[in-house]
Amino acid sequence: MKKIFCLTLIAAILSTMVFYLPPAMSAKEDTAQLTFKKTAVHNKTYSHYTIQKNDVLSAIIRKIPGIQEQDIPQYYRMIKELNPHIKDLDKLEAGQKIVLPAKLKTGGAQTYRVKKGDYLIGIVHRELHITANTQKTMLLIKSLNPSVKDANKLYVGQVIRLPKGRLDGTAAQQTAQPAKIIERDAPVVSLPEKQQVQEEATPAGKEAVMLPPAERLAVLKHIITQMNGTMITRGNYYLPVSKTAQLTIDCSVIPVVELDDRTTLFLDMKNRSGIYLKTIISGQWGNYHVVKIDAKDDMIMILKKIFKNSKAYAITRAEKPVGIGSTPVLEIMPDWLITKKNAKQTPAAIQGLRFVYRDNDLLPRAIINFARRQSFMITEISPSTGLVGRPDELYSLPAMTVLPASPAGEFAQALLSYLNVPFEKDVEVRVFSIRQDGFNLSIKADLAVKQGDQKTLLFSRNLPPQFVNILQKTGDKLIFISDQDEPAKNMERILRGFNVVFTSGYFSFSGLDKNQPPYTLGFKGIKIKTDKDIYAVNFDFHHELRGLMQETWSANIIRY
């Protein structure tokens, strides 16, 4: 009887971690051109730090006084610029010395919403009443907004932080303090259920709200599952090492991630597997990997380590809005994107990650569901409760009005009925009379509408020119439509003929205009202005989006 050697590997449960939230950007607005010029670094604006054993950069940054979770990406980039001699900041060695930027402290901060045409020096002059030493103030503003990667890409409606109080030259110099590394948890913003947090940063020294292991695993599992992958957190996972031996892994302590590109990953949360397991796996299977997860890695770092081993996927910071769908077009601004490598289809993005700190920052469920139908998944994450999202909205709407695109006569009848314009059908119109011309001749108008002393006649076919001249002399107004023309053209002729105000073009609706998260819906159509706003489109507008349009913008959608 052959003996089977089982090696059971037990690792520590996932350590706690925190999330960060870069500020959301408007999906489609005019940009406010703000420029921060590079200047020499004053010796009080940075400090030196000696790397200790097991140090990781994200944990070092968190220990800088006053740093918030949303500051980490910007400070990571600043440290990279200050230490060009270090090729890989993720592989720090004990004894190395690095330069750290300081957290500039002020007497407080105020918020400001960027307006069209804004530029930094104008904001400094107008809002802060500062005309001298403005360069120092602009650097201070940048320090207050570390999550803004490029100040030239601020958007109208975006909220930035400005210093408040007196800021003369002396005060500006005193705000720069050297960073001091201290042993304490970094402050983060919590999100109690149903409770909104202030826009101001969490006061320094407040205990961090750490995501429990179960919630942390739930976030990761949700992200992987939406990519058609699986994450196994229960039971055992077996790998045959040879004919007489197999490897048994306890998935409750070493989660296993299986991606749909045939990549399998073992998440070693506290480096408990040792070199032996890595050697066995790397020697036996090319698509199996042990991923070392440091206890202080945040969610993005974990995902980066996972996708580093994937042949098909990558995770990158979102630099511009993502366009989703075509009828209508949805644009959103996630914080991070999971994309397919070497994808031929456009866009390559398959999932967007949004970090939210307030209930008001959650996207409407109609937007989430529409994106999913377009094969783009949106995951929203709270730094304190994990997965979050609005409940499904229930819209009580009648069935969407659909106008028959043809024949043209029926199209006209349906449109006038929807607009509550009274009309007569198949009306006989006398062109020649036996009394005046010696014979009678009548033609049939598809529709006739009486407006005061004038009558408007609608024909879905062309008439001989002499007939048209005779009818025009009577003072009647004539409208001609055709089955050969596009319904949009016929609609414009009908509306113009009956003096109904309308506009044809591309219409864009921004969530920021309604104090909602940054998203934009856009589509081509005809806007009809009556006692309500009516938008006529030639595509099927999904029920949830139609409800969102009605509730948020009082926009009524019809289809032709």
What's the arrangement of secondary structure elements?
Layout: E1 5-9, E2 31-32, E3 46-50, H1 57-62, H2 72-82, E4 97-101, E5 109-113, H3 120-128, H4 134-144, E6 154-155, E7 159-163, H5 169-174, H6 213-225, E8 230-232, E9 236-242, E10 245-250, E11 256-258, E12 264-268, H7 274-284, E13 288-292, H8 299-308, E14 313-317, E15 322-324, E16 329-332, E17 336-340, E18 349-355, H9 365-373, E19 377-382, E20 386-388, H10 408-418, E21 424-432, H11 434-437, E22 441-451, E23 454-459, H12 465-473, E24 477-480, H13 487-497, E25 501-510, E26 519-529, E27 533-537, H14 543-553, E28 555-559
Parallel strand pairs: 1-10, 12-13, 18-19, 23-24, 27-28
Antiparallel strand pairs: 2-6, 3-4, 5-7, 8-11, 9-10, 11-12, 14-17, 15-16, 16-26, 17-18, 19-20, 21-22, 22-23, 25-26, 26-27
Helix pairs in contact: 9-14, 10-13
Structure explained in plain terms:
The protein is of the alpha+beta class and 560 residues long. It folds into 3 domains: 144 residues, no CATH class; 176 residues, no CATH class; 152 residues, no CATH class. Helix content is 24%, strand content 27%. The protein contains 14 helices and 28 strands. Strands 15, 16, 25, 26, 27 and 28 form a 6-stranded mixed β-sheet that branches. The longest helix is centred in the middle third of the chain and has 13 residues.
